[in-house]
Structure formats: structure tokens, C-alpha cells
Amino acid sequence: QVQLVESGGGSVQAGGSLRVSCQASRYTNAYSIMCMGWFRQAPGKEREGVAIIYGPDTGSFTYYADSVKGRFIISRDNANTVSLQMNSLKPEDTAMYYCAADPGVGRSYCSDLGRKEHAYWGQGTQVTVSE
After folding, report:
1. Closest among 96, 86, 72, 76 to 35, alpha carbons compared
2. Over 70: is that where the pLDDT of 58 sits?
């Protein structure tokens, strides 16, 4: 069983920056979780994919939603920890941000930001951007 623990988030004014991190614990496999990502859900809206990373290190593949390209950066802090650096934040970025992980999947499957099913989810961390 994998537990995803998110940290970071908070409140910021438009144009500001925030960073959220996600650590996968209780993962006993010798290999890192290759596929991890961030998703968000605003009140009254469906959960949407924000960014996905596939790979174990700094050479990993990354995928972004069009709405965050050029502003958000997903990265690996270590084998089973990923972070999302959010810059130039906008009020429409306000949402609960969730980390997801899918051990053992391939890159093509992993890269689908529209995929709804994920093996593990974190509890979510709130990001609020004010005008």
C-alpha cells in the first residue's frame, strides 16, 4: 500500500508563487514510482490533470495542461517525491490540488492527463489565489 502525503499550498495574491510537494511512503518496491502527477479540483468543477512526470530523476518526461504551460514546473525531489512549482498564479488556479501515483505503468499510459483512474491519491492541499 502506498501513502501519498502532500505539503505546501496556501494562499497567495495573483502573480505570486507557491510550491506543493508529494511524498510517497510505505512503498516497499526497490524501484521508484515512475508515474506521478498533480491534479486539481475547483468547487463545482471536475477534477482535471495539471502536470505529470514519468521517470526516476531529472531526465524524466513531463506533461502539462495547456492552462499551466510556462507557469508550472513539475520535478522530482528524490525517487518518490515530486513537487509542483507554481508561478504567475491566477485566480482560476484556485483549487484543491491532489497528488496521484501509478506504480508499474508505462510512459504512454502515464502521460494521459485526462485519465481519471489512478492507483493512489493523496488527501489534497488547498491553493487559493486572490485578485
Report:
1. 76
2. no
